[in-house]
Amino acid sequence: MRKDNKKKFSVGVLPVYVVLIIASLLSLFPFYWMFVMATRPSEAYNSIPPAIIPGTKLVENFQMVLDSIPFFQAMWNTIVLCTSVTVVVLIISSLAGFAFSKFNFPGKNIFFVLILLTMVVPPQLGLIPQYYLVSKLGWLDTLFGAGILYLLNPLGIFLMRQYVTQSVPDELIEAAKLDGCSNFRIYRSIVLPIIKPAFATLGIIVFTLVWGEFLWQFTVLRSPESYTLQVALASLNNAYNVDFGMLLSGVFWATVPLILIFLMFNRLFISSITEGSVK
Fold first, then answer.
1. Is residue 267 part of a domain?
2. What pLDDT, on a 0 to 100 scale, did the predictor assign at position 204?
3. Res. 272 pLDDT band, cuts 50 70 90
4. CATH number, residue 143
5. Mean pLDDT computed over 4-19
């Protein structure tokens, strides 16, 4: 009976595994092709049939990147910017999500809806007034000016509010208040340990978002010493002669830290979808 059940189970899930494998290969192929192009000369970019086997010019192409832009300085600037913004967003979003979920105050629903409505406003519409304000405050060509726009994240507030509402019961909050805990103590000792999976999910989203942002960073940052990776790599794109091997080599090495960060926190990222209980 057990053997038959195992066989039926295996046969039943086989199409699911096939679809998942195909979807995974399709998702990974752009990264693989980027790696292949990073190991080949620029001419291979337009070759027919396209090259699908890695070449031997990975080190040579990357050396050209190092000779053209301050790559490691730009990577350090990007890491500092993304880490700082992520930490601040996690703190603000978790506090706001806790407040919107567990406290009643005048205009609570109106404020929450207004925050969500900011998600539908294209960021390009505010580019000129935001640039004017940052310029007047003296934050041009600084990492603080490049990251100031991301500190208030409507998606993060919404995610934290939903997670706190589902994972932290009101009875637990009331019991902590009866024991004399302040609101901040409840947040630090009860809420934070429960919402760690949501922290990991939001952290990966924000870190990736800031890492891949180009328009605002390109607008604010001016000197090569303050460039982030996206701005520095954009300077490799010459209008008359684009070396695709060099360009994709820089893009490949700029993507590696994101992959490592996801691999470090993927368990918490997945558990945020499957967990919602109180330990």
1. no
2. 86
3. low
4. 1.10.3720.10
5. 68
The yes-or-no verdict on residue 45 having pLDDT over 70 is yes
Asked whether residue 154 is assigned to any structural domain, the reply reads: yes
Mean pLDDT of the residues in the chain: 84
Per DSSP, helices labelled H in 69-195 are 71-102, 108-117, 127-136, 143-147, 154-167, 170-178, 183-186, 192-194
Distance CA 14, CA 26 (A): 18
How many C-beta atoms lie closer than 10 Å to residue 108's C-beta? 12
- Are 157 and 100 within 8 A, CB to CB? yes
Cis before 169 (ω within 30): no
Q: Which residue has the tokens 């990736």?
A: 208
pTM confidence score: 0.82
Cα–Cα distance between 223 and 32 in angstroms, integer?
A: 33
Joined together, the tokens standing for residue 6 give: 């195992």
Residue 122, CA distances (Å) to 85, 126, 150, 259 in order: 20, 8, 14, 28
Query: What type of residue sits at position 93?
Result: S
pLDDT in tens, 147-183: 998 998 999 999 999 989 888 888 888 888 888 888 8
Q: Identify the domain containing residue 172 by its residue range.
A: 69-235
Is pLDDT of 207 > 80?
A: yes
User: What's the DSSP call for residue 22?
Assistant: H
How far apart CA 53 and CA 148 sit, in angstroms, is 42
Residue 55 in domain: no
Residue 31 lies in a domain: no
Q: Provide the number of structural domains found in the chain.
A: 1
State the CB neighbour count (10 A cutoff) for residue 24. Answer: 10
Residues 6+ apart with CB under 8 A from 131: 219, 220
